Amino acid sequence: MRNLFGHSSRRLKAAIAFPVIGVVLFIISNRVDELRVYQGANVAVYVVAIISIILLTGYSGQISLGHGALMAVGAYAAVLSQVYWHLPIILTFVVAVLAAAGFGAILGTAAGRLTGPYLAGTTLALAVGLPSLANQFGFLGGEQGLNYDVGLPPTWLGADFTQYKWFFWISALAALMVTWLSFNLLGSHYGRNWRALRSNPTAAALMGIHVGRSKVLAFTVSSGLAGLSGALLAMTISLVTPSAFPTSLSFSIVTGAVLAGVTLLTGSIVGAVVLVAIPEITGALATHLGGSEKVTSNLPGLLTSVLLIVAVLLFPNGPQAIMKRTRKSSH
Amino acid sequence: MFGQRRSKRNIFALATLAAGALAVTALPAQAFNVHTTDGVTPTTIKLGITIPLTGSAAPGYSKIPAAMIAYFNYVNDNGGVNGRKIQLVVKDDAYLPTLAVAKTNELILKDKVFAVIGALGTANHIAVSKSVNLGRRGVPDLFLNTGFSGFADAKKYPTTFSLFPSYVMEAKIMGQYLKDKFPGKKLGLIYQADDFGTDALAGFKQAGTNFAVKVSYASGSQSAQTAAGWVSKLKAAGAEVVVMFGVTTASGAALATSAALGYKAQWILGSVGGDATTLKAVGVPAVVLTGAIGASFLPAPTDTSDPYVAFFQGINTKYNGGAVFDNNVLVAMNTAMMTVQALRAAGANPTQKGLVAALESKGSTFASAGLAPLNYAKGVHVGYNGYWFGSYNSSGELKPIGGDYSVYTTDSGAGAIAKSTYVRPALPANGLPTN
């Protein structure tokens, strides 16, 4: 009874909280300058990508170093559906989700027997190889890529409404919807199955959870979200090209997920903000430090790696877990 | 139980974080900015460049910003441009379109540069042009380092000015050269299966070149193994003269593999895959390169009898720490010298609109090291339009055949291919433009 009550109150709060966040974001997007709006759009893109990792790794316990490739699948599906089928923009995002989810279902089935480092290795191979496949087929546009044009903002939004604010609105809305859906999904019996699976697959199987099916489902959902974030990423640069999905992208989003605390949906924002901020911080740092080109140009990579190591060593469950721990101990 | 309580808290944590994260960034809120005087103060002019300083494309290209800054510092030490010192803000794009867009946004929205100069990478710059939309913002985008013919569309890219001749021009001129120098020979072609190669095929078609064999490769697929496949196709068709229209790693693989397999043909390298320093860097021995024919629109960087090259080498020693003086350094310093002239031409109180107009009206008269003419005019935003041919000597230097630079010029359309009579303006006194 109490459980039921807890459940519905949680849903109720979510139903209030998400529109509130939406309104807050809307107000902020009208107050900050254009660069911040553009960076905000990038944060939203990374939020979706990081959530896809959180669902997969944090909940179902599978590791993927190939989500950059799944983002590429989504982005190419979206742009192809626009270029060749002339679908309206909203439907191209749906196509991105479906195509990447379909691809992920096949991959998840094939990789279902692999765990730990073997799964990581397989998915890594995908991240290295898949995007450059686009160079082999002319209709994919080669290295020059295909223009992905979500169009100008609707005129009723006014003449001052910039393209980047439009990107931000689209990606922030997507990120909010994804967070909300994932929040509900993880609260459902699927989410409970995944957690059981991650903790102890044998015990989960004994309890009647179909391990293989649950894993594939997690991979499919996660891939669909990665596909959506890929299409959103392509939107922010208006182009789909293999070099937009380098191997380092897969590492970045895993880093973001670790910084987020891989089991915390809400941490995805922390991870995403850090990922977007790093190049700018290191740029500023490099200007202040001066120093040789070799040093300054390697700063971003160094900082990301140090952050990753520090995060794993000091707060493996994310910075929020620390906050909670201190709060608990002060009680 | 715990999970639910955690989730409740999380929702509010999410709300707080979302608001907090963006509210912090909200501090420098400001009104919509009209870019008329961005980057210009009474004492400075701020320019920006994004370039690969790290990543696979960094070797070679990473030398460009330092060489530009070296020339700008020389000009600054001699009074600057109308009393303003030139600053160049350099950002690393790692040759990734995502970073190229992010960094160009920083240049324009945060550093508020007056103009972007010397951007490179076709895919990167398509992304930048589309997403950042330099044209709509009115930000000048000068001396782009790519021959992709798409950027020639001045309506689509109103503030973009390319420096290099288009790949179509290069292929047309090469076709004419083949007709003149190798009549009756069996010709072969290796090209990249993308827009780069499409431009090349269009150019050869215009020039009426008939290849006995055409081999295409997908960008990124080049290796010793795939090159062996190309060579066997060329061999089977009995090609005596082979045009290599690809990137340096592809031309390197083709040259090395054909030498290893004992396939002897007269190689003609396109400008993209023909930089001797880069070929050496990817492991092509000079002996393999010797006797191959290459194309360029600048004097050879080792030609000290050329006044521009000699002057830039002096700047390189004094202001650039004596870096290896190769084609990248030459292109960079030449670009910097043209930038100074463009800024001078924009007048005592330069505006971004004025800079674009100045390039259209006076760009063709700028002093530059290029041996082919500059063609800037109203609606014409492609700079050089010609090439000269040379052969690589045993130390990998490209030397003009017959001792003098004979330049052929053409356009990207159906225009004729002609031997150029262009005489470039003399080097300004002390290398300081006075236009």
Walkthrough of the structure:
The complex is a heterodimer of chains A (331) and B (435). Chain A is mainly alpha-helical and 331 residues long. In chain A, 77% of the residues lie in helices and 1% in strands. Chain A has 13 helices and 2 strands. A two-stranded antiparallel sheet of chain A has the order 1-2. Chain A is globular, with a radius of gyration of 20 Å. The two termini of chain A are 28 Å apart. The model of chain A is unreliable at 1-6 (pLDDT under 50). Chain B is of the alpha/beta class. Helix content of chain B is 41%, strand content 15%. Chain B is globular. The model of chain B is unreliable at 1-8 and 21-36 (pLDDT under 50). The interface between A and B is large, with 64 and 61 residues.
List the helices and strands and how they pair.
The complex is a heterodimer of chains A (331) and B (435).
Chain A: H1 2-29, H2 34-59, H3 67-85, H4 89-111, H5 116-133, E1 146-147, H6 163-187, H7 189-199, H8 201-206, H9 211-237, E2 239-240, H10 247-260, H11 267-289, H12 293-314, H13 319-330
Antiparallel strand pairs in A: 1-2
Chain B: H1 2-25, E1 44-51, H2 58-61, H3 64-77, E2 85-92, H4 97-110, E3 115-117, H5 122-132, H6 134-137, E4 141-144, E5 160-162, H7 167-181, E6 187-192, H8 195-207, E7 213-217, H9 224-237, E8 241-245, H10 248-260, E9 266-269, H11 276-281, H12 286-289, E10 293-296, H13 307-319, H14 327-345, H15 352-362, E11 386-392, E12 398-400, E13 407-409, E14 418-419
Parallel strand pairs in B: 1-2, 1-3, 3-4, 4-5, 6-7, 6-8, 8-9, 9-10
Antiparallel strand pairs in B: 10-11, 11-12, 11-13, 13-14
Q: Could you give a short description of this structure?
A:
The complex is a heterodimer of chains A (331) and B (435). With 331 residues, chain A is an all-alpha fold. Helices cover 77% and strands 1% of the residues of chain A.
